[in-house]
Design goal:
three-stranded mixed β-sheet; 14 helices; mainly alpha
């Protein structure tokens, strides 16, 4: 009976591995109560609770058993499938990611399909656990080691992966750190302009999340650094406009703490860099601060504005 169970588990591992590798743009992976081990509907995959528990234990034990064997086509193929499944079922364990790295190192660095597959698996591993550091670490390792063949489409897919994981888990700083790293490592003026516009929409639709605002602030810094070093006027205009934009948001959402934090960050930066904000914007801030002084008594914005 035990051998029959092992055969069934190996078949499920093989099937799940193929689904993860072949299915384009897998949108979700969920754990459900069902008799069927795996259910694939379009771009949505469901794993039964029983299969998730049993397959995780079986895959870990089998991986540790096979890793000790001498290399052979059968052994390497099984470990490939097991590691593919394990980085999705248990993405926190870096030994499976390290094995994937060793597989990559055996391949030529001009294999675009290998880079695409590994980045896809990193994205899949975030479907069950969106706030996890290892998938992002693996993606950065891949992008660094395959830098010569990284295309603009690859960068866009990484930004989409970050957006999905940030949507799935609030305050997902792993996602925002990776997103910023991608833009800094692969500078692209066109993409930076699109990111500034995208981040504006994100801030407006996630008004209580400071992570997106902090990301936007870093985008503004990157944008300023890419401008002509002698163009201090343009740099000042960028941050003056941002202060006015955030003041408008504060007027609309006066009790939202994240907006006040972002406004305070902008005002501090402007003060430290001798950037004069518009008096009308500062007047509105003072008016709001006076109205909500009791609620926001710990914030003394007047001292930053003066």
């Amino acid at each position: 009976m035990a051998n029959d169970d092992n055969v069934d588990h190996l078949r499920t591992v093989e099937r799940l591995s193929n689904i993860l590798k072949i299915t384009p743009n897998l949108k979700s992976i969920s754990i459900i109560q069902h008799d069927e081990p795996l259910i694939l509907e379009g771009q949505h995959l469901a794993i039964s609770k029983k299969t998730f528990k049993e397959l995780g234990l079986f895959s870990r034990q089998t991986f540790l058993k096979f890793i000790k064997k001498e290399s052979s086509p059968s052994r390497d193929s099984t470990l490939d499938e097991l590691s593919t499944v394990l980085i999705v079922l248990n993405p926190d364990d870096n030994k499976y990611w390290n094995y994937r790295k060793r597989l990559c190192q055996k391949c030529s660095k001009n294999q675009t399909d290998k880079l695409f597959l590994e980045l896809k698996l990193s994205s899949c591993s975030l479907k069950l656990k969106p706030k996890c550091a290892e998938p992002f670490n693996h993606a950065r390792w891949l992008l660094t080691n395959y830098r010569e063949i990284v295309s603009e489409q690859t960068i866009i897919s990484q930004l989409k992966m970050c957006e999905d994981s940030a949507e799935s888990y609030k305050h997902n700083y792993y996602s925002w750190i990776h997103r910023l790293w991608v833009l800094k490592t692969f500078p692209n003026t066109k993409l930076l302009e699109k990111e500034l516009e995208w981040s504006k929409g994100w801030v407006e639709s996630h008004i209580s999340q400071f992570c997106g605002m902090n990301y936007r602030f870093n985008l503004l810094l990157i944008s300023s650094a890419h401008q002509n070093p002698d163009s201090d006027v343009q740099k000042c205009k960028t941050f003056v406009n941002e202060v006015s934009y955030v003041v408008d948001l504060v007027l609309f959402y006066p009790e939202t703490e994240s907006l006040w934090c972002y406004l305070g960050l902008l005002l501090y930066y402007c003060s430290a860099n001798q950037i004069e904000c518009e008096e009308s914007a500062l007047f509105r801030v003072r008016a709001i601060d006076n109205r909500f002084s009791r609620r926001f008594q710990k914030r003394n914005l007047n001292s930053e504005i003066a």
